[in-house]
Amino acid sequence: MWEARSSSFWRAVFAEFFGTMIYVLFGLGAALRWVAGPHNVLQVALAFGLVAATMVQALGHISGAHINPAVTVAFLLGSQLSLFRAVFYVAAQVLGGVAGAAVLYGVTPAALRGNLALNTMHPSVSLGQAVTVEIFLTLQFVLCIFATYDERRNGRMGSVALAVGFSLTLGHLFGMYYTGTGMNPARSFAPAIITRSFTNHWVYWVGPMIGGAFGGFLYDFILFPRMRGISERLSILKGERPDEPESPPEPPGEPIELKTQAL
Questions:
Q1: CATH number assigned to the domain comprising residue 21
Q2: Is 31 within the bounds of a domain?
Q3: What Cα–Cα distance (Å) separates residue 200 from each residue in 128, 131, 180, 188, 203?
Q4: What is the pLDDT along the chain (263 residues), one digit of tens a residue?
Q5: What is the pTM of this model?
Q6: Phi-psi region for residue 118, left (φ > 0), alpha (ψ -120 to 50) or beta?
């Protein structure tokens, strides 16, 4: 794969690792219980929303700042990045999430770690209800990402980073009482692997993956379709190198810089 020989590709993969690490570290850290009493849902929702907005602003131009396997899979199904890149993104996100949870575990006093803000379902919520909630939480989030990231929107209004952050905040405000709000398999997996607690963990993979895929399909194929043929979509998925337009010869002594599309 030509992408593997590109320094920009590896910078993007590292950006996904680093961005997910910061997202999990700050998000889970804000969700820890330092005092007795119920969760401060607004605090947790704002923390996740703000750290997501920060990472989009800081890393969006490098990797797209997916920092979420469900988002990456949605972009893959929409033929907006190659399978090769998607695999490395998801691996980087999962490892970054685990790294963030490990750092949080190390800097938090043992008496206050608890379950490290592990996603848990409300006792009254059934498995079917939990999966459905996760589907809709992630659907609206991915729909927002696809709409705000869309380069075809010439009249984009406002801040992309804030739009993504508000969408994530909205999801937490609604979902905290139902499922603890996953919306991101890397976020759910990180505390689960650190605490070795995987009860109903599949909910936090299946729900977001279905919701993300449906959100991407809804935007890219129904609401604002991309007019691409099957051959073009397959070319993108296979990661074939795009044809570069002809340009004047570079002056002697100056290297030719390959231009790749940022995803």
A1: 1.20.1080.10
A2: yes
A3: 11, 10, 12, 11, 6
A4: 678 888 999 999 999 999 999 999 999 999 998 887 777 999 999 999 999 999 999 999 999 999 999 999 999 999 999 999 999 999 999 999 999 999 999 999 999 999 999 999 999 999 999 999 999 999 999 999 999 999 888 766 789 999 999 999 999 999 999 999 999 999 999 999 999 999 999 999 999 999 999 999 999 999 999 888 888 888 888 888 765 444 444 444 444 343 334 43
A5: 0.89
A6: beta
Host domain of residue 186: 2-238
Q: Are the C-beta atoms of 26 and 77 separated by less than 8 Å?
A: no
Joined together, the tokens standing for residue 220 give: 């890219």
If phi > 0 it is left, if psi is from -120 to 50 it is alpha, else beta; for residue 229 that is beta
Residue 201: inside a domain, yes or no?
Answer: yes
37 Cβ neighbours under 8 A, 6+ residues apart? none
Q: Say if 250 falls within a structural domain.
A: no
Q: Specify the amino acid at residue 102.
A: A
Within-domain flag for 10: yes
Q: What is the DSSP letter of 201?
A: T
Sign of torsion, CA 113 42 218 234? negative
Using CA atoms, how far apart are residues 65 and 55, in angstroms rounded to an integer?
Answer: 7
How far, in Å, CA of 14 to CA of 33, rounded? 31
Q: Which residue has the tokens 């575990």?
A: 105
For residues 225 and 217, the answer to whether their CB atoms sit within 8 Å is: no
- Asked whether 113 and 32 are in contact (CB, 8 A), the reply is yes
In total, the chain counts a number of residues equal to 263
Q: At 250, is the secondary structure helix, strand, or coil?
A: coil
What does the angle CA 55 – CA 164 – CA 122 come to, to the nearest 5 degrees?
A: 100
**Which one, of 163, 5, 181, lies nearest residue 84 by Cα?**
5
